[in-house]
Amino acid sequence: MSVLSGSSRGEIDAPIERCWALVEDVEAAPRWQRGLERMDVLERDEEGRASVCETLNDVKLVKALVTVRFSYEPPHRLSWTLVRSEDLRSLDGSWELEALGPGRTKATYSLALDPGPVGALARGPMVRMIRPLVVGRRPEELASALSRPA
After folding, report:
1. Predicted local distance difference test score (pLDDT) of residue 6
2. Which of 48, 25, 39 is nearest to 68 (CA)?
3. Distance (Å, rounded) from C-alpha 121 to C-alpha 60?
4. How many CB atoms lie within 10 A of CB 149?
5. Three-class HEC string of 42-89
6. Average pLDDT in the chain
7. What predicted TM-score, i.e. pTM, was given to this entire model?
8. How far is the C-alpha of 76 from the C-alpha of 42, rounded, in Å?
9. Domains (range + CATH), the chain
C-alpha cells in the first residue's frame, strides 16, 4: 500500500501566538481534534512540553494506537513522527503557522502515513473515504477551538 498523505490549509482570525499556544498544547488536542480520542504523555522535553506521546486515533475502520515524537519550532512549526505502532508502518505530520498580519494566521496541517496491514482494506473508494478522516479540516477545528470561551 502506498503512503496516504494530504494537507489542509486555512486562514484564522487570530494572531499566530494564540494559534501556536493551542497547537503546541498537544495534551489538549483530543478536546478539539476530531478522531483523536486520547493523548497520553510518556516523556517531556527540558521545557516541560510533551515530547513523546501515545495516541489513540479513531479512523473509522480501525482505532490506531500510535506512539509519536514531537518537535517544536515556536511559533511556526510543530511536527511529529512515528516511534511505534502495531497499526501503522510510518507516520509524519506537522502544523505550519504563518503570520499574515495583525490578528490573522495561515495554518497548514499535513499528514503522511503508511497504513500497513490495514492498507489492504484501503483501496480506491476507501482511500477517498479515509483521507478526509486522516487529514480532516484541522485548520477549521483550530479556528473553532480558538473562538470558544476559555
Report:
1. 87
2. 39
3. 12
4. 3
5. EEECCCCCEEEEEEEEECCCCEEEEEEEEEEECCCEEEEEEEEECCCC
6. 88
7. 0.87
8. 24
9. 4-147 (3.30.530.20)
Q: State how far the Cα of 137 lies from the Cα of 108, in Å rounded to an integer.
A: 10
Grid cell for residue 1: 500500500
What lies within 8 Å, CB to CB, of 88 at 6+ separation is 64, 66, 82, 113, 114, 115, 116, 118
CA 82 to chain CA centroid, nearest Å: 12
Q: In this structure, how many other beta carbons lie within 10 angstroms of the beta carbon of residue 137?
A: 14
Question: Among 44, 49, 51, which residue's Cα sits nearest to residue 21?
Answer: 49
Distance CA 26, CA 5 (A): 21
Confidence of residue 125 (pLDDT cuts 50, 70, 90): low
Place of cell 509519536: 68
Cell of 30: 483530543
Distance from C-alpha of 93 to C-alpha of 116, rounded to nearest angstrom = 17
